[in-house]
Design brief:
Distance between the termini: 52 Å
Largest sheet: 10 strands, antiparallel
CATH architecture of one domain: Sandwich
Number of strands: 18
Order of helices and strands: HEEEEEEEEHEEEEEEEEEE
Helix content: under 10%
């Protein structure tokens, strides 16, 4: 009896002591010896792939640095052996088997520039041995293709019946004889026309015919026409910065409820609803 109680105590103690990884869409980042580790726990079993992206800010310019093929449920990690000096923002781009794309929340890790410069004079540290992403592969970034220079190149034009060949050089300017007719200068009054930028104004909430926010649950509710089976409906959601955060390429049901947790945080989101590739409606929803 005492042995059973001791065994149960050890199991409970080990379970509490083990560090719990955040559940998607939350991720966490840590740094050790200038190597960044991104960790998360996957609660889904129908994910096609997960792409790890990185940026120097938290808004745009995210580039892929890793790929996890055929993810499975449970904890997972990705190791970035070459982080940038300064702020490094990471997030996951998730593609489900149905074609739905989804972005996780981002996390940030700061790397001192002096540490990276000092690491160049020493041997690169080996990655931690507890990486369990066997199918995670780094993304090979292609080097920019150099632009051909026109220096020293000439293009010879074919002569016409009464003209001689002319060599055109990119840095040569052809001067024509002056025009004999006198030049007339006409002065026109200067007119300044100012246009309002439609993107700078606040979001205008026009009542949608198909999408609204449920006042009790806070979820985004969508009610489509009854012709879903005969038409191709799709919808995309964008954050205030214009980044797409939610994409459903095909809607198969007329009544769909989007959990408010899929929008990651409170705020105003723009949606674009299409039917047969043609925009049916666009507007804004406010997620509380």
């Amino acid at each position: 009896m005492k042995l059973n109680v001791l065994l149960i105590f050890l199991l409970v103690f080990c379970g509490v002591a083990a560090p719990a990884q955040p559940i998607l869409p939350d991720i966490q980042g840590s740094v050790k010896s200038r190597i960044v580790t991104i960790a998360w726990s996957n609660p889904y079993d129908n994910i096609k792939k997960i792409t790890i992206v990185r940026s120097s800010d938290s808004v745009s310019n995210f580039v892929p640095i890793g790929l996890q093929k055929k993810p499975v449920k449970g904890p997972a990690e990705f190791v970035d052996e070459h982080p940038m000096p300064g702020n490094n923002y990471y997030k996951l781009s998730i593609v489900f088997g149905s074609g739905l794309t989804w972005s996780s929340n981002h996390c940030s890790v700061y790397i001192e520039r002096s540490e990276l410069e000092a690491a160049k004079t020493r041997q690169t540290a080996a990655p931690p041995p507890n990486i369990n992403l066997a199918t995670t592969e780094p993304v090979k970034l292609q080097a920019p293709v150099p632009t051909d220079s026109f220096a020293g190149k000439r293009e010879v034009l074919q002569p016409s019946a009464n003209r001689t060949p002319v060599a055109i050089v990119p840095d040569t300017m052809r001067i024509h004889p002056p025009v004999q007719t006198p030049m007339q200068i006409v002065h026109h009054p200067k007119v300044n026309i100012a246009f309002d930028d439609p993107n700078t104004g606040p979001a205008t909430f026009i009542k949608s015919s198909y999408i609204f926010v449920d006042t009790l649950s806070g979820h985004v509710d969508m009610q489509l026409p009854d012709d879903v089976a005969t038409h191709h409906y799709s919808i995309k959601f964008y954050d205030p910065a214009g980044n797409m955060i939610y994409d459903v390429p095909r809607l198969h049901h007329s009544r769909i409820i989007f959990d408010r947790r899929n929008f990651q945080h409170k705020g105003i989101y723009k949606f674009v609803l299409r039917r047969d590739v043609v925009e049916l409606e666009s507007g804004y929803v406010k997620v509380e």
